[in-house]
Amino acid sequence: MPLLSVWTGPSLRFDLVFECSTTRARVCRLFFPSHCPAGPVETPVYMPVGTQGTIKGVTVGQLEAIDCRLLLGNAYHLGHRPGPETLILAGGLHAFMSWPRGILTDSGGFQMVSLSKLSSTDEQGTHFCSPHDSSEMLLTPEESVGRIQASIGSDIVMQLDHVLHVKTLGEEVYESTRRSVRWLDRCIEAHKPQLRHQNLFAITQGALYDDLRDECIREMTKRKDEVQGFAVGGLSGGEAKTDFCRIVHQSTSLLPRDRPRYLMGVGFPIDLIVCVALGCDMFDCVYPTRTARFGQALVDWGLIRAPVHYISDLGLWFYLEVNLRLTNYTYDFRPIQSGCPCPACSGNISRSWLHAAFGARQSNAASYVTLHNLTYLLNLMRQIREAILADAFPRFVREFFQRRCRPSKTSSGNSDFHIDVEYEFDEVPSWCVEALKKVNINL
């Protein structure tokens, strides 16, 4: 199949392989010269989140075994622990964690929201008070890109942007968005020494203001020759789904065709399907790993929820309430999902065993479900790519939603269905219908 376009930068080759004839969905390939032992990163791609260079309960060997090719870390947290000095001595994060594949690092901008009570931002940068030891940290574009992310040695580094909660209104949004453009120029300058080893992505902002999103993308794409990719930031923060889809659709219509498009903070299966159709290539989210620690497994029809005890990030025990209509898994000896290639399902680890292990507070239960959820999403993205390449993506989307809607009482079907599962919805949400209609899919 002839490539539609090829763009080559100092440390990245980006191939546009195929575009859906109906929607904006597309298949692309990213080649990193130093970290492609398993081949290129194929998009659309979901990136598991290893904030501090690790995913709880999962080894790098297990990540390789499920064919994860691009992992996400966080510059703010890695800048605290283990810190740039240790990472430099180790030879970068790849060597430090023995991970031979791709790494993308976020710049620390999101922590301006998640740690808003411990931070303040001005033109220089963001002043943080560490939640770990109360030490102070000034995170500037130069510190994030030129020092911390350079010491990490990630294949993709994100610019430091001024992030506000997505529902912020008024002049503050305009000022923070324009500051993100100014900070991009500082990031570009700080990135120049690493240009042949790392790729800098710009992050477009603008909250829910259409005119500001247009302005930001217009200004940032003027720097197209100095950055290697673009991200859509500032979403997935509790805004209405109709607003979310409107901004994504608007952004992909303006971003360059010959560069990667990364939608930050998105990882619910339904969101991935819709946003691929709208033209996004790359995604990340803590959802599949975090929800696994609650005993929740992703399956084709929604979620399996186990009545389990759970260790929170604070080390506190609590009981997760369960819909009483769901079957108790004590005597359910089936795998989480038949045919799934994850270590739990392919290894005949039953729902009954997982139920007992969660109840006994065994950490390996969460590890099994984490690997299952990651496998599920990585396989979903592979199926999406295959459907796009076959120019059958609209049909794939319709079948996806059919599986996740509760069957009627007269329906027959797979024995896994109907009795002990929580379907994602009774009918396709209206926001999905409207978003997909914009790219010519009628549900």
From TrEMBL:
Q: Name one Pfam family in it.
A: TGT
Name the predominant localization.
cytoplasm
Q: What is this protein called?
A: Queuine tRNA-ribosyltransferase catalytic subunit 1
Query: Which one GO biological process term can you cite for this protein?
Result: tRNA modification
Task: Report the source organism.
Answer: Hydatigena taeniaeformis
- Function field: Catalytic subunit of the queuine tRNA-ribosyltransferase (TGT) that catalyzes the base-exchange of a guanine (G) residue with queuine (Q) at position 34 (anticodon wobble position) in tRNAs with GU(N) anticodons (tRNA-Asp, -Asn, -His and -Tyr), resulting in the hypermodified nucleoside queuosine (7-(((4,5-cis-dihydroxy-2-cyclopenten-1-yl)amino)methyl)-7-deazaguanosine). Catalysis occurs through a double-displacement mechanism. The nucleophile active site attacks the C1' of nucleotide 34 to detach the guanine base from the RNA, forming a covalent enzyme-RNA intermediate.
Per its record, the protein catalyses:
guanosine(34) in tRNA + queuine = queuosine(34) in tRNA + guanine
Listed binding positions for substrate are 106-110, 161, 205, 234
**UniProt-listed PANTHER family:** QUEUINE TRNA-RIBOSYLTRANSFERASE CATALYTIC SUBUNIT 1
Kindly list the residue ranges recorded as spanning the membrane: none
Subunit composition? Heterodimer of a catalytic subunit and an accessory subunit.
Q: Where does Zn(2+) bind?
A: 340, 342, 345, 372
Q: Where in or outside the cell is it found?
A: Cytoplasm
Instruction: Give the residues annotated as active site.
Output: 106, 284
